[in-house]
Specification:
extended, Integral membrane protein, 192 residues, transmembrane helix, mainly alpha, 8 helices, membrane
């Protein structure tokens, strides 16, 4: 197969060799247009993402502010796809109606992290112990929240897809209540 021609014949006469005429009969497969120059490809990549997404029309500051306010109010048309639908609205209301340990991480965890840098070994020991206890309590509360939201949503919305609903609820619970978008519609302790 990989031999040179011999005195008796050529390499094409050997078994397993590809005849030269078969290569000429195959059509060339091109893309039908010339390749772009490098500077053209780089210039196309430099276009800002918002400009690419809206095809040249950039939203004004007032339009962006109006869209953000519509998201805060919870208008369905202004929400991203992950927040739309009655199941996600129920999960948001379920999270907003209960007290969550995950929301306490910043107010309680940050001072404990600062106490870890105190020179006293006793204070550092108790700060680390409390910080680990807080983290484990948040983990268990988040697991229970995800389970409870999925169970309540399955009972209220039979046949609806619940994929990712538990994680959606946990991530909302981790946010500070005032910073949640859309803003909470129910008070704490209210029945959902």
């Amino acid at each position: 197969m990989f031999r040179r021609s011999t005195a008796n014949g050529t390499a094409a006469d050997q078994p397993g060799a590809v005849p030269a005429s078969s290569e000429a009969t195959q059509p060339s497969s091109g893309k039908g247009r010339p390749t772009r120059k490098r500077r053209e490809a780089e210039a196309a990549r430099r276009v800002p993402f918002i400009e690419r997404a809206t095809r040249g029309s950039r939203p004004s500051r007032a339009e962006l502010y109006a869209r953000r306010e519509a998201m805060r109010r919870g208008e369905e048309s202004a929400l991203p796809a992950r927040d739309r639908g009655p199941v996600r609205r129920f999960a948001r209301d379920y999270v907003d109606a209960r007290r969550n340990l995950a929301g306490l991480f910043l107010p309680l965890g940050l001072p404990l992290i600062i106490l870890l840098n105190v020179p006293s070994p006793l204070i550092r020991y108790f700060a680390a112990l409390l910080l680990y206890a807080l983290i484990f309590a948040i983990i268990f509360d988040s697991i229970f929240l995800a389970w409870a939201v999925r169970r309540a949503a399955a009972a209220r919305f039979p046949g609806e897809p619940l994929r990712g609903l538990g994680m959606y609820a946990v991530l909302r619970a981790m946010q500070l209540r005032r910073a949640r978008i859309p803003a909470p519609r129910v008070r704490r302790g209210e029945k959902v």
